[in-house]
Amino acid sequence: MKILLVEDEDRLASFIRKGISAEGYEVEVAYDGRMGLSLFRKNSYDIILLDVNLPHINGFELCQLIRADNESVPVLMLTALDSLADKADGFNAGADDYLAKPFEFQELLLRLRALTRRSGTKPKQVLRLADLELNLDTKTVTRAGQRIDLTTREYSLMEYLMLNKGKIISRVDISERVWSLDFDSSTNVIDVYVSYLRKKIDKGFSTKLLHTIVGMGYVLREG
């Protein structure tokens, strides 16, 4: 599922993008209303997340322009303007839902899922890092469009690392979450499987994604 997030606050935009990307959504960010309108007209999106106080074109105006082109795409407004009058303006502009800032991230996810059900679109549960993709529905992994065949254990390890991309994961964590065993410091089975996985996802690519952090564990990240 592809989402357009129009939000001019860099930190908030980054937080939302990372959070919903980790849930399998593909997110593009526009930092002002004009950029948001341009991206909307060039691409196809399943949901629009829209701030109100935006440079160049405000969220209410942008929502009206979106509605003029597309009557069905779900629009969720995210804004600090939380009065009844503000909400009325949002709904009158064509929004499907309205979430006031500050909000709990879990509530945002719940509202996204509700809009998905309402629109009849099932989200594609795909995790991405650079050109590496893991589809949670089909249990498949590709890099640069090429399918990577993994064993059941390799896939479980790959999924856990992708769900925690950018974080250093210790061997203890992997043992407990992937093997569901008490950690045995005398075994090198985790190192062996990480080696298997690294050969499959990194061999032949100039950008390496699976890294060993000496004395700490492993991390899946770009560069």
UniProtKB/TrEMBL annotation:
<keyword id="KW-0597">Phosphoprotein</keyword>
<dbReference type="GO" id="GO:0000976">
    <property type="term" value="F:transcription cis-regulatory region binding"/>
</dbReference>
<dbReference type="InterPro" id="IPR001789">
    <property type="entry name" value="Sig_transdc_resp-reg_receiver"/>
</dbReference>
<dbReference type="InterPro" id="IPR039420">
    <property type="entry name" value="WalR-like"/>
</dbReference>
<dbReference type="GO" id="GO:0000156">
    <property type="term" value="F:phosphorelay response regulator activity"/>
</dbReference>
<keyword id="KW-0804">Transcription</keyword>
<dbReference type="Pfam" id="PF00072">
    <property type="entry name" value="Response_reg"/>
</dbReference>
<feature type="domain" description="Response regulatory">
    <location>
        <begin position="2"/>
        <end position="116"/>
    </location>
</feature>
<feature type="DNA-binding region" description="OmpR/PhoB-type">
    <location>
        <begin position="124"/>
        <end position="222"/>
    </location>
</feature>
<feature type="domain" description="OmpR/PhoB-type">
    <location>
        <begin position="124"/>
        <end position="222"/>
    </location>
</feature>
<dbReference type="Pfam" id="PF00486">
    <property type="entry name" value="Trans_reg_C"/>
</dbReference>
<dbReference type="InterPro" id="IPR036388">
    <property type="entry name" value="WH-like_DNA-bd_sf"/>
</dbReference>
<dbReference type="InterPro" id="IPR011006">
    <property type="entry name" value="CheY-like_superfamily"/>
</dbReference>
<dbReference type="GO" id="GO:0006355">
    <property type="term" value="P:regulation of DNA-templated transcription"/>
</dbReference>
<dbReference type="InterPro" id="IPR001867">
    <property type="entry name" value="OmpR/PhoB-type_DNA-bd"/>
</dbReference>
<protein>
    <submittedName>
        <fullName>Two-component system copper resistance phosphate regulon response regulator CusR</fullName>
    </submittedName>
</protein>
<dbReference type="GO" id="GO:0005829">
    <property type="term" value="C:cytosol"/>
</dbReference>
<keyword id="KW-0902">Two-component regulatory system</keyword>
<keyword id="KW-0805">Transcription regulation</keyword>
<feature type="modified residue" description="4-aspartylphosphate">
    <location>
        <position position="51"/>
    </location>
</feature>
<dbReference type="GO" id="GO:0032993">
    <property type="term" value="C:protein-DNA complex"/>
</dbReference>
<keyword id="KW-0238">DNA-binding</keyword>
